[in-house]
Amino acid sequence: MYTKNELMFPHYVIPHLRDARGEAWRDLIDRISQLPETHEEVLALMLTMIRVNGCMPCETDSYRAMRGCTMCTLQTLRRFKEPDSELLRIYNQSLKDVRAYLAQPGSPAMVADTVAEAV
């Protein structure tokens, strides 16, 4: 009855967003798709999509949820009337927010930091 539903925007949807907007968006998705799921840039894109999609109030039995996260996000990106520069501005703000959170004492270490320390 229901498609695979998530509580918030899932990582596996990111590659499906590649052709949803223009060249700058495609470049961002290409770069982020190569990074580990826990990388700060990936987390920032996920936060961006949570904000743009309005994932927080999504209910399991809503029409959006029944269609699944991929279809919901693609529809949201198609309906987003602002230029790609506005999406990138939202992404950059999300990246600042993720970095500020990670800079707090006791926040989880990023994979890149862990790998760098191991080398």
Can you give a write-up of this model?
By secondary structure, the protein is an all-alpha fold. It has one domain. Helix content is 58%, strand content 0%. The chain has 6 helices and no strands. Helix 2 (40-53) packs across helix 5. The radius of gyration is 15 Å and the shape is globular. The termini are far apart.
Mean pLDDT: 82
Please give the largest β-sheet.
Answer: none
Radius of gyration: 15 Å
Write down how many β-strands occur, each being a DSSP E stretch of 2 or more residues. 0
Strand fraction band? under 5%
- Assign an overall shape: globular
Q: Give helix and strand order, one letter per element, not per position.
A: HHHHHH
Q: Helix- and strand-based class?
A: mainly alpha
- From the N-terminal CA to the C-terminal CA, the straight-line distance is 48 Å
Taken together, the total number of domains comes to: 1
Given as residue ranges, the uncertain stretches (5+ residues, pLDDT < 50) are none
Helix content: 55-70%
Number of helices: 6
